[in-house]
Design a protein that fits this description.
By secondary structure, this protein is α/β, with parallel strands linked by helices. Helices cover 40% and strands 22% of the residues. It binds zinc ion. The site of zinc ion has 5 residues, from loops.
């Protein structure tokens, strides 16, 4: 084989592998899907679908049988996963609290354990390993395919290490090495906003009529703010040399504003993260003696009970959120935004002032932009488990 044909054959293999993952993702997302639906959504011809599907059926991964199809109610031959016995482990490493859990291939989370994150990286890793081992031992008979870990920071290109988590103060933590409990269970480490974006992408395949994932930017607001981009059904990670895609939380929105962990001032996450609510609520002064610093969910519940100061706090956050969201839409050029993270608990108070702020920007004068709330679980354990499932699909 000469050089040129080697390249084109590699190119073909790469495209083929991409289409196979898209197809598997669609089967998993929809739970059962016909060949003609796959052809229409993914733009693949019949013979290519056969080329992809045949070996997967032969290997016992997919099966094709009669199923009542939701789109027309008539029974038709539909593809689904053959036995659904594959399971996944997940760890969401949060700044304050962490969760480990188990998910089926269908996306049902069957177990979740929550614990406080130790502030020391080694101690946190030891505790997480213990919790994961406990779940693994408890379900020994299950076929665990991968362990997904979501972290509040950047990862190395191989997705094995956490390179920097500003809100934890951790640098270069060998997460995958520390959590390898079985050589047959690969460990994949992913940024938490990207993991949440993967989760929302799968949810949206199930909701969409054509089985396609829309392009969207996920903005995750919790202790900090991060973003995940989904374009053409794939998450976008940015240049490997930077590993900084989605660090929108540190764009400056107030000149000379509040100091941030990144050493800059006036970063978006100091004004529109769930954690920023406490400071806004206290009027940007330290708590007085005997005064407690309210948690975000406490502020939301006070607002629900008619407390004006809490409601104003959430409205102010909505205003800042909208300013940043308009900037994100202008920068990335994707008009669909999904808000994820703890912030969504206060959505009903945040939504209108956020829309007003976007309305004041140049984006507000265009058509077709939308901002919606994601599912809270997606920004936590759900995202980590989704990383594991995606890893499994990519190896089939
Ligand atoms: Zn910053």
């Amino acid at each position: 084989m000469n050089y040129r044909s080697a390249i084109s054959s590699d190119g073909h293999n790469q495209i083929f592998a991409q289409k196979r993952v898209l197809l598997l993702r669609m089967v998993r997302g929809a739970r059962s899907v016909t060949r003609s639906e796959i052809g229409k959504s993914l733009g693949i011809d019949k013979s290519s679908i056969t080329e992809i599907v045949k070996p997967l059926i032969k290997a016992g991964i997919l099966r094709e049988g009669m199923a009542d199809h939701p789109s027309n109610g008539r029974p038709s031959r539909a593809l689904s996963f053959a036995d659904g016995q594959d399971h996944f482990l997940g760890l969401n490493l949060g700044v304050r609290r962490s969760q480990v859990g188990v998910m089926t291939l269908n996306g049902d989370i069957t177990e979740e354990v929550d614990f406080q994150t130790p502030s020391d990286a080694d101690a946190a890793l030891r505790m997480a390993r213990e919790e994961i081992l406990h779940l693994y031992e408890k379900h020994r008979g299950r076929r665990f395919r991968a362990l997904g870990v979501s972290v509040p920071g950047t990862t190395d290109p191989a997705r094995r290490e956490l390179t920097y988590a500003p809100n934890l103060g951790w640098k270069n933590v060998k997460i995958a090495d520390g959590l390898q409990i079985d050589p047959a269970i690969p460990v994949v480490v992913e940024n938490d906003s990207t993991a949440a974006a993967m989760y929302e992408a799968r949810v949206r395949i199930r909701q969409s009529e054509d089985g396609r994932t829309p392009n969207f930017v996920l903005v995750r607001s919790g202790t900090g703010i991060g973003a995940g981009l989904v374009i053409g059904g794939e998450v976008f990670r940015g240049g490997a040399e930077m590993g900084m895609a989605g660090e929108f939380g540190h764009m400056t929105i107030v000149a000379g504003g509040k100091p941030c962990v990144c050493a800059n001032r006036g970063c978006w996450e100091k004004y529109a993260s769930a954690a920023s609510a406490a400071s806004l609520y206290l009027g940007d002064r330290p708590p007085a003696r005997g005064e407690s610093v309210p948690r975000f969910v406490e502020i939301v519940s006070k607002a629900e009970n008619g407390d004006v100061r809490s409601r104003r706090t959430l409205e102010k956050i909505g205003d800042y959120l909208g300013i940043g969201v308009a900037n994100v839409i202008m920068t990335v050029g994707i008009p669909r935004i999904i808000i994820s993270g703890r912030l969504v608990y206060g959505w009903k108070f945040i939504k209108d002032p956020m829309n007003d702020a976007i309305g004041r920007s140049i984006i507000g004068r265009t058509k077709g932009w939308s901002v919606e709330a994601g599912e809270p679980i997606g920004s936590a354990l759900g995202g980590a488990l989704e990383v594991a499932a995606e890893e499994f699909l990519s190896t089939l």
